[in-house]
Amino acid sequence: MSSIGLPHFLIVGAALFALGMVTVVTRRNAVGILMGVELILNAANLNFIAFNHFVATPGSLAGQVFSIFVIVLAAAEAAIALAIVLAIYQTFHTIDVQDTDLLRQ
Amino acid sequence: MATASNLRGWLVRLAVLALGLFGMAGAAGLHKFAHLGLGLTLFLEYLAITCVVWGINGFVLRTLPLRGVLLLVFSAAAFGVLFLLAYFLRSVMAPFLFDAAGRFIGLVHLVDLAFYLFAVMTIAGAAGCAFSRNIIYSAWSLLFAFMGVAGLYVFLGADFPAVAQVLIYVGGILVLILFAIMLTKQIGGDPKLTNAHLALPMGAALAAATVGTLTYMAVMAPWKIQAAPSYEPVSGALGVAFLTDYLLPFEVASVVLLAALIGSVIIARKEIKETSDAVSP
Amino acid sequence: MDHPTTSTLLTWMTFLPLGGAALILPLLLLRASGAVTKELGDQICRVIALTASGLVLVLGFVLWRSFDPSNPALQFVQHGRWIPAYNIEYFVGVDGISITLVMLTALVSFIATIASMPWWPGNTHLDEHHFTQHGVPGYMAMLLILQTGMIGVFVSMDMFLFYVFWEVMLLPMYFLIGIWGGARKEYAAIKFFLYTLAGSVLMLLAIIGLYFNGPQELMDGRLVHTFNMIKMAQWGRAGGYAAAPLVLGFQFVRIAWIALFIGFAVKIPMFPFHTWLPDAHVEAPTPISVILAGVLLKMGIYGILRINYAILPQATKWAAAAMAVFGTINIVYAAFVCLAQKDLKRMIAYSSVSHMGFCLLGMSAFTQQGIDGAVLNLWTHGLISPMLFLIVGVIYDRAHHRNIEGFGGLAQQVPEYAGLLGLAFFASLGLPGLCGFVSEFTVFLGSLVQWQLLTIISALSVIITAAYYLWAIQRMMLGKLNPAYATMPDVNWRERLTLYPLGALIIVFGFYPKAIIDLIEGSLRNLILPLQ
Amino acid sequence: MEHELASQNEAVARAIEVSWLWLIPVFPLLGSALNAFLGLRLQRAYGKRVNHAIAVGAMLLSCMVAEIAFWKMFVAAPQDRFFENHLWTMWQSGSLQVDLSFGLDPLGMMMTMIVTHVATLIHVYSTGYMADEPAYWRFFMWLNLFVFSMLLLVMGSNFVVMFFGWEGVGLCSYGLIGFWYEDLTKASAAMKAFVVNRFGDFGFIIGLFILFWSLSGVWSKTNQYLPERGLGSALVRGTSPEPARVSGSGTTLGPTLEFRELRNQVSDESTGMADRLKGMTLWGFPVLALICILFFVGAAGKSAQLPLYVWLPDAMAGPTPVSALIHAATMVTAGVYMVARLNFLFALSPPAMTVVAVTGVLTALFAASIGFFQYDIKKVLAYSTVSQLGFMFIGVGVGAYWAGVFHLMTHAFFKACLFLGSGSVILACHHEQDMRKLGGLRKYTPITRWTYLAACWAIAGFPWASGFYSKDEILWKAWTADGLSAPWIGPAIYVLGAIAALGTSFYMFRSYYMTFTGEYRGHGGHEDKERLEDPHAMAAHSHADAAVQAPSSAAAVQQVAATDVAHQHDHSHSASPAHDDHGAAPAHDDHAHDAHGHGGEPHESPSSMTYVLAVLAFAAVVAGFVFGWPAAWGGGHEPALERWLAPSLPAAEHVKFRELGHGTEYLFQFFGLAIASLGWFAARVLYLDNQSTAPARLKEMFPRAWSVVFNKYYVDEAYQATVVRGSLVLSRILYWLDQNLIDGIVNGVGFVGRSVAYVDKVIDERFVDGAVNGLANLTWNSGKQLRRLQTGHIQSYLFGALGGAIAFVIIQYVIR
Prior knowledge:
Helices cover 73% and strands 0% of the residues of chain A. By secondary structure, chain A is mainly alpha-helical.
């Protein structure tokens, strides 16, 4: 019997989440931020599936279903976000989020 | 630079080097099988090592003026060191080493090893994505992160999500991202420009805090682990589930996808138009 | 303890430099207000410093002449209440152990002050390269405060006062190295400071321990402990400290002895604690090196004699062998290290380490000759090493580097300088007829009885000493003249004023060291009497 | 019985205070001081004659005083021949009392006479030899200072004054060997001499200390020192006892450094000091043997015995008068003098005597064998000096003290004559020292030739010349010696010594024939071939060239004619033609060197040198039978010198010699003659007129052996590889440790301290100051902070949000 249990996966997920968060918070590049988001989503997925595997009652697939949905939404989000990035790039001729702070005025 | 003379020199050195190596092995063999006397063996070894030192001296440690007495002394020292080392390894360290290796191998399951492999791959990929100075590298390390996660899915008996992960993330999103990077033509260039950071230390601190906290929770929380996790393939069951219990979300998701499709196309078109009439006048 | 005469001489010697420093402060105000130009202010500061240390030198001469060698007890004693709450006194006096060091301090400080003057008879303009072009008032003030601290350490007979002066002397030194020093001055100053501070912290602990385990006396109706070193010494000789409670399971006397010894060993400096010295010397400006080598190193030995020997004789006996071994290590190790030096000043610094080892070795034998030689070595080394460092300063002012290999053949370009350098080097390698030999001879003679092997090993080091000094001479002075220095000027008058007196004294005390030994012998005999 | 009484009388020496002895050394000191401080100015102002006037004048004065002292001693009765002159007590520490005082006894008197007179002669000689030396004043300054130190050495009435001189002569020889210091090889030769001598001084000092303490106490089995009642004080060790013990003969016992008091304590049986010392052991050795051997180490350093002889041959780098004065006549004999001076100690310890004698004979043989094949004439003489010193040590070692001292005296004469002769030759041939480029000087330099021949005659030991008497006396005493630790050692020493004597005679006449007979081979290109086949000749030659160019480059510094000095520099590495225009160069004031101007012809030296040569040659011939007429040759009493020295050598009575008849002595003297003639004959056959090809053939026959001997058995190389390199490497290692290990630890500690301080500072600023200022600035700051939060960057908002969340979680669940 393998000694790998739930905590291991949760820890991996936590690491993924944290790194993604770092990416989101500290990148100045919009695409970079997008990558961070993807990482975070992956972390979430991992947790879903892990819990589904270890905790949920046998036979229930809720976690995996959720992970599928997340993947789908992630795809959509990626498509939109990248389109937006391109638009931003067209208007500001940069994708550095520091320089695109219209929200301040 | 390899004129004939020092070419010959090298060849001689090489020959002597080989001779020395053979000599070492041969002396050891003689001692083991032909029961050569220990003293004689050591002497032969010393000679052999002298040859080796002289040979090596031609290639690596050129700075030492190893010749004459100095050579003998030096190789004697080397011999002594090697001898001590060998003795140490054989009679002192060896039992511990073997024992430790045995225990270690006994401890590790192959499965766990694979798990750790994937986990490391994932986290390393994520870290690369987070901290790389060049966004291209970030993208590529993202790939590793995705693959690793897919691998982990497999461990959790989730075959379909694993496949979906590979197809959609790696095949779709990552490609998209790369496209975006290229389109915003910030490839290569000055890494600082392509992928600068902002308050990285604070971010890292935050991440550390997060990891700490979550790990703490993960370890400390009293999860109600169920008895026997199942490893059957789940694709079929998933399909059934989508069409029965989760039908509504399934439809909504498809609508969302459609909207996203249209939206992105529109944004893209607008952008194209802008550039075009930016060019036209 | 009888106090034959009460006299204010020592107080004058101690605080006269401080007064000079105090005179400099209003001058700063004047200068700030623009009433006095910078140049004039600097000149006034220099004159003040010269006058103050000159007066101290005169007083030192008076002290020497009016000191009674036949009386081993304290002389020129002055008592005053300072902090009655803890029975801390202002209590100064000199005996045979400290008289020579007080004189030495006066002499060396005066010479150092001369050496820090950018002008001298025979040149009309200030030399621009001199290091005291900036911050002259600060420099002079620091120099004077340092002098006060040094003399205070030697004359104070109250342990608290002793410690205060010890620390007072520390700070100016730190600034003098850290501000007016060379390239790595901050590093050197920090190192010096940390080392000495660490040492003096241990010392403070030990002193407090000695205070609370020490004798008590009735003062205005209550029993109080005392910091009076004389009373503590009597108490210690009577074995009073043996009754003290154990510290961490060790005898108190041994712990206290070790703590004090480390505190002083840093100053000597003794083998494991010596590495601050080369850096400090290399970075310090010449006059500071002169004071550092001439006086500060002597305080370690002085403290050991004054406190460890006098107050903790039993522990001293217990630790004699260790002292001898460390002394030998100092001598031989530092001599060998000298052989490897490229930087002239660093070499001389290490040679100081080596020579202070003689003191340790001689002291640890508990023979009359050994301890006489040790204290005499303080004096002779106090004459020789300042001369050596002045010599280095001369060459550094001209060549702006100290790399021994960088010279060559200077003897024909600067013969007078070569002669003086030869004198100093040969004095330091113990040539008979120069005072270095006398102390070495006496130390070895005294220590051979107790430590035959160690003495022989140490005596072998005289060969190494000769080797590195002569090798340095050969590389610097002999051979073909290095064309880079074909126009090097010879010794100028300021340097003559500093070098010739030292050279003359070195020769004089080479042939008549009796003048010193007679002063110290009585007190030292009483000091080692309980150690037999 | 009456013999016993006599020894009693002699054993206790009473001193007579002679208040003017200090004048003897003080004149050279004054001369040296004058030349040191004013020399350069005087030389510039009034020319060189002022300098040598000062120096030679000082020497003449001190000679005069010495002669007066000698006369005073000569007329005094034997037991009154102990003069002392106590100047002042240098220092006194406990039982150690060091006086600056001079003492003269017959031995010291003899040495003083030799030193002053030979030195005066050599001063005169130097005025000619060094005439074209720019740093003339410096030369005479050093020379005078040397005489002063040497007089301290021989006249010192205690060990310390002797040691002052001992190191002083070392210093002066350092300054004089390195006199032409522009040449680094010479400078390093000087350094070598000083450092090697330091080994000897180390032995001297340690032996002195052990002796000092042994006089006042005993060493226990565990090497603990126990003061003895009445000798040392147990109260404070090293202080003098309250009631000092006094022997029956009125001698005060106890620690002393004075030779005379020591001699009285030891050689007077009634004191029992000798038996005390004999009984003592330290580290299991008999203390006496230890002391004497340590003293002998000092002597071996100064007198260039095995294994410390290496410095002497290199010392030939100095000017030739220096080699004659310091490295032949006076300084190198100091060791012999010391052993003779301490005869009463050495006589008590057969092992020590054996060590001395055996070392002496081995050195004699060794050095002679090296002397065979040297080509540099000064090197030949140097090795011959080492060998002769070996003979002296045989003498003092076997107990024939007077014989050793006698050989010292005769050697001073003939070796000084030889060196000065070689100097004259070198000058004649324009600083050529390689004997293969000399030769045929017979007709050019007759006076030098005859004096050199006479000196060779003396050193080889032909009858009527001094060497015969001294050397044969020594060997005869060695044969009959009975005081050594084994009876067979004496004869063995005799045999080896005889071989060494044969060698002496051979190489001396070899040098004579190579130098003075045949044709002058000075210039002409053919010697280049020789150089190629023999690198050492090259070395020797460049050596000689360096000797030429050194003074001229000094001239370059001091004088204006820099241009053609530089011109000499170009040439001076090529063969002798360069030396001609060197001679002609106006950079030298030709005081005695007009002969230099003519072409390559050798020329006789100026009269100031030839007269000196003549005087010394005369002394070398007659000194022998004047002072050492053997008792066996009739006359009815033992030799004059032996009688003269008797009061100084109380141990002479106690050393036993086997009684052999006069016949045997005649036989051995004949042996000596035969040996000398054999050596002479061999040299004549091989080297007369440089005709014979035998030497070359021999060389080819045994090339390896020849090169080993020619290269001096590679002793220098061995020392270089082991001692010098070893200590250098060790020093590097230690310095590395110092910098990296110890300092590393220190820096680590310092770093920790600094970081702690930093944390401290942060805490201070954040909390302490914060508390102070906080209240005041709270509202204002909070407003500002809040406004700053409004950045408009989603990321910072996100950051805040996530941070808040984490903080919340932590507070809620983790800390709880």
